[in-house]
Amino acid sequence: MALIQTLQLHHFRNIQQATLHLSPGLNVIVGDNAAGKTSVIEALWVLASGRSFRTQKPQQMIGSDQVDMTLFCEVFRLNQTHKLGLKRDAQNLELRLDGKTLRNQTELAQYLPIQLLTPESHRLLEEGPKARRQFIDWGCFYHHSSFIQAWRNYQRALKQRNQSLKRQLPSNQIRLWDQQLIESALQINELRSSYVEALTPYLMTFIQHLMPELSAEIETRFYPGWPANQPSFEACLSDQFTRDLQLGHTQYGCHRADIRFRIQQQEPLVSLSRGQQKLFVCALLLAQARYLQQQTNDSVIMLIDDLPAELDATHRVTLLSLLQKLGIQHLVTTTAADLIPNLDPSTSLHFEIRHGQISPLEAN
Ligand SMILES: Nc1ncnc2c1ncn2[C@@H]1O[C@H](COP(=O)(O)OP(=O)(O)O)[C@@H](O)[C@H]1O
Ligand SMILES: [Mg+2]
Question: Quick one: which atom of ligand 1 is closest to the CA of 64?
Fold first, then answer.
């Protein structure tokens, strides 16, 4: 179980100062356009991942005319309350967990298994494989403590190998990196492929909940990042060495992995309507959430930006009742409170945001 009890923002975008005491169930943030709703969601995502989903430039998140911003939250997880803090100025990033300075964002991430649904989430289906790799790796990270080290080893070996290729170093110096690359690739590949396989039945379940009209089986297929006709990644590296040298980088590997879905033998982009594609992404997130709960007893926190823009009234009820049934804490933003059904007033709280000022609101 992971629950955010308190969230504090200081000099974050248009929010000067705010403290929110959250409910373990539904939390609705109501406000007009440009009030600062997405900023609240963004702040939590930044605490959990170190990155914004809106900007590559961290400085844009610091309130104008301010020199730094601070985010703080209290998370109740596995019977303990933890204090997570992040402070950023133009140059530096400071991370703290329970009063201790951290060197690494991933240590904070472990305490905040956050999932995000925004009007941009359908990119998961539309765009290149990067977002889908991040989707798989999110799961591998929260299920397997060994994943992050393997991933770092892979990235390091890949970077070194690519630099050696680019500089046209002698083959033996390039191949120096192959062993580390292969070892970490095999670890990553095993974790990713078994994660995708285990996730598939959960995906089917939530697709049935959200889109009972779809009768066909859903097929998920994992692509490791090298051609299927290669006997192994090691063989692929040897086989492609001359080509890698010509290109100046490593063509194949875990950095090219992907997951593809098929419904009625077709890609979701072809066989599903826009609305159904959004529901498909919801089902993917719910599948991850449920699988994590069942395997680790940990629970995700779901952030949904502009829910009414995402789903129609019927599907809003379906999604919110699933989240409630699964005991998942969720933060939902909206321009009007009455667009969000209040299924269980005993576990829901409403907040109003106006020009960056947040205040509790009586539930309707
Ligand atoms: N660094 C910043 N300092 C001050 N205001 C900002 C900063 N970045 C964005 N804003 C402003 O904050 C407001 C809130 O934006 P946003 O969170 O997207 O609102 P909403 O999601 O409610 O529409 C916008 O008017 C935006 O221009
Ligand atoms: Mg917004």
Answer: 3
Q: Is residue 64 lining ligand 1, measured as CB closer than 6 Å?
A: yes
Same domain, 42 and 107: yes
- Check whether residue 164 and residue 280 sit in a common domain: yes
Q: Pairing between strand 357-361 and 80-89? A: unpaired
Q: What is the pLDDT of residue 305?
A: 97
Q: Which two tokens stand for residue 281?
A: 């992404």
Same domain, 252 and 359: no
pLDDT exceeds cutoff 60 at 364: no
Nearest ligand (C-alpha, residue 11): 1
C-alpha–C-alpha distance, residues 68 and 239, integer Å: 51
33 lines ligand 1 (CB under 6 A): yes
Are 200 and 249 within 8 A, CB to CB?
no
What domain range is 268 assigned to? 139-295
Residue 128 forms part of a structural domain:
no
| pLDDT 10s digits, 154-176 | 999 999 999 999 999 999 999 99
The neighbour count for residue 235, using CB atoms within 10 Å, is: 11
Token representation of residue 53? 């989903």
Residue 180 CA: distances (Å) to CA of 137, 161, 163: 19, 10, 15
The rounded distance, in Å, linking the Cα atoms of 173 and 54 is 40
Q: Are residues 185 and 251 in the same domain?
A: yes
Residue 19 belongs to a domain? yes
Each residue's pLDDT tens digit, 261-272: 998 888 888 889
Give the nearest ligand 1 atom to 63 CA: 3
Q: Please check whether residue 124 lies inside any domain of the structure.
A: no
Do 144 and 281 belong together in one domain?
A: yes
**184-203 per-residue burial string, b: 16 or more CB within 10 A, e: under 16:** bbbbbbebbbebbeebbebb
Q: Residue for token digits 């969720």?
A: 330
The response to whether residue 13 sits with its C-beta less than 6 Å from ligand 1 reads yes
pLDDT of residue 41: 98
Number of domains within the chain: 2
Q: For the chain, what percent of residues have pLDDT higher than 90?
A: 91
Distance (angstroms) between ligand 1 centre and the Cα of 121 equals 20
